[in-house]
Each structure stands twice: as structure tokens, then as C-alpha cells.
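@channel sequence for tomorrow's demo:
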Amino acid sequence: MNKFTLISLVIVLIVPNVILGKKTATFPDLLKPRGMVIEEDRIYITEETTVYVYSGQDYTLIKKFGKSGEGPGEFLRFVAVTPHKNHLIINSAGKISLYSREGEFIKEVKAAGGISFFYQPLGKSYVGMGISLEDNTRYQSINLYDSSLKKIKTLLKRESDTQPTKGVIKLLHTTLQYLTFENKLYIVDGKDFEIKVFDKDAKELMTIRRDYERVKFGEEDKQKIFEEIKSSPRQKQYFDMIKKMAVFPDYYPAIVALFQRDDFVYVMTFRRQGDKYEFFIFDGNGNFLKKIFIPFVFQTAMTPYPFSIKDNKLFQLIENEDTEEWELHVADIK
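C-alpha cells (generated this afternoon):
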């Protein structure tokens, strides 16, 4: 999902189901895709523990690989693809796997203890997220790891908004995410429009800040979130518990998501105009370039359709409810 470090972008927005741009291809092999990355000549689409490799020219299936398991070439719970130089980094639970861009297995590296995941390359190291439980309190951390995924140091640590042992789930109070780009690390942590930038040695360089009026969170938003949870096959069994524990904010956090494509850093906010969402675009040095509104489609109130950006175009995989096929739609970023 093109270095989208919100971890598959689970966010809550109440939007109409609109169609994005024009249809360019259909993928009959897919059932429930979760992520997509578009490169120059390849399209990588993830579905549970399988990675599909398609041609970027005629959209034919070149190869698919991966299955559920713990051995080489097998993945647990999920897969996420990050193209890196001449190979692919495949994240799954407890390890990373390296593949060629054509989908040939190279090697895997398993995490060296603790609960950590979603590793992104930074110089010769990796950045990943860790979860720990200390004195009945759940913590999240962003850590620096060596090439064997052994933790070098903690860059950020804070109490999680979700504290199930204390009966509290704070929804949409803050954002915690990260990405690496051109040997820099970008971290969003909190409710304001602030992005901390670090160099390849994880030394802090600067903070990107913007004055920003956050979007109000209302009673209608809360009720539609509850409706979505109640109708979800995976979550409805926990509905009563979540409803009892949920604590909502007065305002959405300033930043929804942070991701990188081509030579730019994109920052998505909760502000929208009809079916378009606000994006701030920065260069690799953190210089503000422009603000635009881009068409963006959600599959449900809590999950967007898989998407990727390439060459000033936004691509999304959208399910056609009539044919039950997945279509690739594209919209220009102007």
C-alpha cells in the first residue's frame, strides 16, 4: 500500500459510495484485496496472505505467491508490500520477507523478540512499531532495528489510546504513524498538524507544522461508526463491549494519514468537499508545495478501497456490486 504507515489505513469517515475517475482494468482473480502498490511496470495487490503481481502495461497476472504459515514463502495474518531498490519487502506478522520484483523468494528475517511489525527501511536499518504491556498499561512505540530486526533503540513511546484492560477505547483522539522516504523518517504522533522528520541515523532534523482548524466530530459520526461496527461480520460480536468502552473526541485529529509516492510526501486530512478529500503535498525536504482535494472512495465507513499514487494519478481498486468484479479506477491529481 505504498508506504502507507497507518497500517492498512483503518480510519473512520462517513462518505457516499462514489465512483473514482475512469475504469482502466478488471481483475477477475481477486476476491477481497486489502492493499495495492503501483510501480513503473508492475502492480502488486495483497489479499490476506497472498501477493498478486500484475503487468503494469496490459494488467495480466504474472504471478501470485504466499500462503498462510510460518515457513519461508508463508505468511501469518496479513501481507504488506514495500518496493525497495531492486527488491520487495513483504511485511507479515513477526517477520519480513525479501522477494525479487518478479516475485521470486530471496530470504526472510524474523523479529528478534517482542511484538513488533510493519518494518520500513531506513539506511541500513529498519523502523517498526512495537506494542508492550507494562503495569496493566498498553504502550505503543516506534523503534529502530538493525538488519536482523533486533531493536537498537526506541524513538517514541506513548500510552496507547486503546486500553482494553482498563475498559477504555479512545477512537480518533490521536494519530500515530510513520514512513521512510529518501533516507528520512517521518513520524506523526498526536492530534495536531505536526510531522517530525529524522535522518538515516534516526537523529531529529525538523518538525513540519501547519496552522490547521480541525474538523468537528459530531453525534451523527458516532452513531454511523456504531452502525458500521454492528454490521461488520468480524466486529459485530464485540459490539456491546466496544460501545461500552468507546470514548469519542470533540474533534478529529488533524492528520488522517501520511504516505509517500514518487518524489512527494502526501498528508491526508479529515476535511472533505463532497467526494474529495484534502491533501497537503510536501517535497522530500519538508517544503510545502500545495493543497488539493482528491476524489477518494471508501468501501465501508471504516475502510477505504485499496489505493496507490503514481505519476500524479490516484488509483483505486473498487468492487463493482453488479458484476462482483474488482475494477481499477484512476483520477488525475491536479
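heads up for whoever presents: The domain at 22-332 is CATH 2.120.10 (Neuraminidase).
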